[in-house]
């Protein structure tokens, strides 16, 4: 990716984010002044046109997973005497702080039957975990805010602050008091909950990915680590396998092991298969032999065989920390040809920092860094690069059984960002990257997440 392309891509993301923020309902002063607290509404009175109380609000029903940016209220669950009944939204006249006024004196009371995508806001969302995408954190909904928008009442925001949670414990007159300054726009959150998944799968996925696709793998990793067991399995189900695998590669080892144990074996195997080989090997090492085999037997045979080969290398050695993802080249190729094959590996850009040049017997000749490849002429031969780089000495290599401490010394001495791992005949086996080397040598400090800085 060129500098101009990168700048254009960054500018586009910032512009899209600005447009998204401008379109959020809670930026409107009119909406912020008309907010109605769900916590204050539950238990509030429902009155007819004459002002007579006909019942009390038990819960608010909204279509959480639909085409709308803000979930519309589709009805209320009321308590009338000892009976609970459903009131459709077309009978609602006005929703005030702590009370509801009906549109008509005649109302159609019916038993509640949940329709696709509907949830009970107080039961299914309030006090449940959700993801604050803007703040990149897992939190809980202390209150939800409704507001009239166009011709209907919709869910526009959520409050996650501790003062609001304390407000709900106070007198009734406090509970209905919204706090606009603490509101998070609904478009900036992704809700969770067992009952919040009743909508059609394709609708749930579309709604959830809209907000989650803005998060980087490192952000998703932090969120997965903070979620409860059922919520993070739900989140994993929302993500594409490639996106989920990228997030798993950024997780703390202990959290990743727990996540793989919690997931269904077929799903866990698919996630491990999507991970980079070195990261997948690290993930499997923490499992028991039985758990590893349960996943490996569910993976494609070629990928499983590769991981088994990597697992045979002892932990704490270069072979145990290397990735087998290598881009190789022959001297007779042109620089343009190598760049073309490099572009095809864009999804592995964090795993490739050089191209290994090999001879006809697959023995290593040179390790060409991406910078040298970038500044070379398209028509230049790789052999010319090999000849020019020869003046700086042979490429830095280690063997599979080299201790990581020794590999680190060689990495520092070479002033390189990776080392090639070769066999006794100088044939490349894999590559050990600087960040993986540090992660392996400094486990007590946690994963350093070099990719987070690079992104």
Automatic annotation (TrEMBL):
<dbReference type="InterPro" id="IPR038076">
    <property type="entry name" value="MgtE_N_sf"/>
</dbReference>
<protein>
    <submittedName>
        <fullName>Magnesium transporter</fullName>
    </submittedName>
</protein>
<dbReference type="InterPro" id="IPR046342">
    <property type="entry name" value="CBS_dom_sf"/>
</dbReference>
<dbReference type="InterPro" id="IPR000644">
    <property type="entry name" value="CBS_dom"/>
</dbReference>
<dbReference type="Pfam" id="PF03448">
    <property type="entry name" value="MgtE_N"/>
</dbReference>
<dbReference type="GO" id="GO:0016020">
    <property type="term" value="C:membrane"/>
</dbReference>
<dbReference type="InterPro" id="IPR006669">
    <property type="entry name" value="MgtE_transporter"/>
</dbReference>
<dbReference type="InterPro" id="IPR006668">
    <property type="entry name" value="Mg_transptr_MgtE_intracell_dom"/>
</dbReference>
<dbReference type="Pfam" id="PF00571">
    <property type="entry name" value="CBS"/>
</dbReference>
<feature type="domain" description="CBS">
    <location>
        <begin position="389"/>
        <end position="448"/>
    </location>
</feature>
<keyword id="KW-0129">CBS domain</keyword>
<dbReference type="GO" id="GO:0015095">
    <property type="term" value="F:magnesium ion transmembrane transporter activity"/>
</dbReference>
């Amino acid at each position: 990716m060129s500098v101009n392309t990168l700048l254009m891509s960054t500018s586009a993301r910032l512009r899209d984010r600005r447009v998204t923020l401008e379109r959020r309902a809670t930026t409107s002063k009119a909406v912020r002044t008309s907010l109605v607290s769900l916590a204050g509404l539950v238990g509030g009175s429902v009155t007819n046109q004459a002002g007579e109380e006909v019942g009390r609000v038990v819960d608010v029903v909204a279509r959480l997973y639909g085409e709308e940016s803000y979930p519309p209220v589709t009805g209320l669950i009321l308590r009338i005497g000892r009976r609970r009944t459903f009131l459709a939204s077309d009978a609602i006249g006005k929703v005030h702080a702590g009370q509801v006024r009906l549109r008509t004196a005649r109302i159609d009371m019916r038993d509640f039957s949940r329709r696709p995508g509907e949830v009970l806001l107080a039961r299914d969302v309030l006090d449940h975990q959700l993801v604050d995408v803007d703040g990149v954190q897992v939190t809980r909904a202390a209150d939800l805010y409704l507001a009239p928008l166009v011709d209907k009442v919709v869910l526009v925001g959520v409050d996650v602050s501790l003062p609001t949670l304390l407000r709900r414990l106070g007198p009734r007159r406090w509970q209905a008091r919204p706090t606009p300054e603490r509101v998070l726009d609904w478009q900036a959150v992704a809700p969770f909950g067992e009952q919040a998944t009743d909508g059609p799968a394709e609708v749930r996925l579309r709604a959830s990915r809209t907000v989650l696709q803005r998060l980087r793998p490192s952000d998703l990793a932090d969120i997965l680590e903070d979620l409860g067991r059922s919520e993070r399995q739900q989140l994993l189900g929302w993500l594409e396998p490639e996106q989920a695998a990228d997030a798993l590669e950024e997780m703390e080892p202990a959290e990743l092991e727990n996540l793989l144990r919690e997931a269904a074996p077929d799903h866990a195997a698919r996630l491990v298969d999507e991970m980079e080989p070195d990261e997948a090997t690290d993930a499997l090492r923490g499992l028991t032999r039985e758990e590893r085999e349960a996943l490996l037997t569910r993976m494609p045979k070629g990928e499983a065989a590769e991981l088994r080969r990597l697992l045979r290398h002892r932990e704490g050695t270069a072979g145990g920390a290397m990735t087998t993802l290598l881009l190789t080249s022959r001297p007779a190729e042109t620089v343009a040809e190598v760049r073309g094959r490099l572009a095809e590996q864009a999804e592995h850009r964090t795993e490739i920092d050089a191209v290994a040049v090999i001879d006809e017997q697959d023995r290593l000749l040179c390790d060409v860094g991406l910078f040298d490849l970038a500044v070379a002429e398209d028509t230049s031969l790789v052999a010319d690069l090999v000849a020019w780089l020869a003046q700086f000495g042979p490429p830095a290599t280690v063997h599979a059984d080299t201790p990581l401490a020794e590999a680190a010394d060689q990495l520092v001495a070479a002033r390189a960002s990776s080392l090639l791992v070769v066999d006794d005949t100088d044939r490349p086996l894999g590559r050990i990257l600087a960040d993986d080397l540090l992660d392996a040598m400094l486990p007590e400090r946690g994963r350093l997440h070099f990719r987070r800085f690079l992104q």
